[in-house]
Amino acid sequence: MNFWEYLGSRHQQLLADAYQHASAVFQCMVVATVLGVLIGVAAYRSEWAGNLATTATSTVLTIPALAMIGLLVPVVGLGVAPTVTALTLYGLLPVVRNAIVGLRGVDPALVDAARGIGMSGPARLLRVELPLAWPPILTGIRVATQMLMGIAAIAAYASGPGLGNEIFRGIASLGSRNALNQVLAGTLGIIVLALLFDAVYVLIGRLTIPRGIRV
Fold it and tell me: Residue 176 — φ and ψ, nearest 5°?
């Protein structure tokens, strides 16, 4: 059976795995984005706090994905829980770092002008600083999403959802006639999903970032 015949015979299962993979990454990125921006907002005014936030989140990336999931399984069990926890933790660094960089890069004159017309601190943050920091934050989200697409495949080790199951099945059956097809189908599926997500982010950037800021 060649690769295209294999895709035709397994397309329903592959589509289900692709949906689960995309859903897991999307949901974890939503959580990581909210947490990352909140951490960035809390830390960007202080050099010490900013360094602590960046160091703490970057430390997570020094832990191999397989080891991270292995450490989480005894705590939260198999399946979705270790997948969501690991992906959320891995997605924090790019968002936190870019949120801090973006907020620190806002022109102080604009913040002073907002203060001069009577805006409160929360209003300045929501209406001036965060909108101007959005381009680097979106870049951090894009980087984190691409990273999580690959890491999510490792979640199959702990019975997690997604295309990693196809890859692990192929690796477990090396030597069989469909082993290569399984690994290839899972890998190409992840690549396609990563490209689709990135295209969506490009569209979001064009819709939410004013032309002058993009330039």
Answer: -80, 165
Sign, CA dihedral 84-208-106-139, equals positive
Residue 83 is predicted with a pLDDT of 87
Torsions phi, psi for 159 (to 5 deg): 60, 30
Task: Please report how many Cα atoms fall inside a 13 Å half-sphere around the Cα of residue 91, on the Cβ side.
Answer: 33
Contact 108, 186 (CB under 8 A): no
Positions in the chain short of pLDDT 50: 215
The model's pLDDT over 135-154, given as tens digits with 9 standing for 90+, comes to 999 999 999 999 999 999 88
Q: How far apart are CA 153 and CA 157, in angstroms?
A: 8
CB atoms inside a 10 Å sphere around CB 164: 27
Q: Count Cα atoms within 13 angstroms, Cβ side, for 83.
A: 27
**Contact (Cβ atoms closer than 8 angstroms) between residue 138 and residue 205:** yes
Helix/strand/coil for 175: coil
Maximum Cα–Cα distance for the chain, whole Å? 72
Residue 133 in contact with residue 182, Cβ under 8 Å? no
**Distance between CA 101 and CA 95 in Å, rounded?**
10
Tens of pLDDT, residue by residue over 48-68, are 999 999 999 999 989 988 888
Q: What pLDDT shows up at residue 187?
A: 93
Residues whose CB falls within 8 Å of the CB of residue 155, separated by 6 or more in sequence, listed in order: 24, 69, 82, 83, 86, 87, 161, 162, 164
pTM score, whole prediction = 0.89
